Amino acid sequence: MIFSRGTIEGIAVALAAHGLIPRGGFRFASDEAAPAGLSGAPAKCALLVGQAGAAPWPHFQRWLAGQPPQAIANPLDTWSRAVIGAVAQEFGARMVSPSDRPYLPFQQWAMRAERLKPSPLGVLMHPQYGLWHAYRGALLFEEEIFLPEPHQTIHLCDTCADKPCLKSCPVDAYSEQRFGHHACLSHVRGPRGEPCRAGGCLDRNACPYGAAYRYPPEVQAFHMAAFARL
């Protein structure tokens, strides 16, 4: 059995009610150690779910307003699991999350599904969304589903000579070779880190691509606060 194009369209409609979108998919090779599907048998296909820009934010905020104060340690992850899990149940799939332990190779899956490559910041560069997108989960199917072939894309970072994303951080946390996690975290938590806490990573905001999808300051502040608690 192969689920038709209508299955993907139905999933897209269900996700759109929460500001989420399908983010491409792929078929596991016959000799690949695929994760389990809904029944425990190896999955045949994966369909990634995520966002472009901050479209889920108002949906998430409405949900969060109905939760007891400080009752959820990771509210965005909890919301994503609930929403994507309900869609998975509706379409006979198993939902998995980037935060599941042991970790699943979500970045490799995304590169496989959408043919994207990492930016110097590690975030995958999208030809339309720039750095302003995310993956919130995946649906694993034990049956074949219709999956459009991903388009070959230009890696925008290869066309960017100035690399402003490597020149805006006050503590030079990012370089071509590494991410200075300790330096970044210390700065964000310290007295000089207020611009980062209020408006997000300065290096990420310096990237000129996908500006129309840039997260608003309150969304970036939310993510930065989550990072600073690590």
UniProtKB/TrEMBL annotation:
Tree of life domain: Bacteria
Organism: Mesorhizobium shonense
Protein name: Ferredoxin
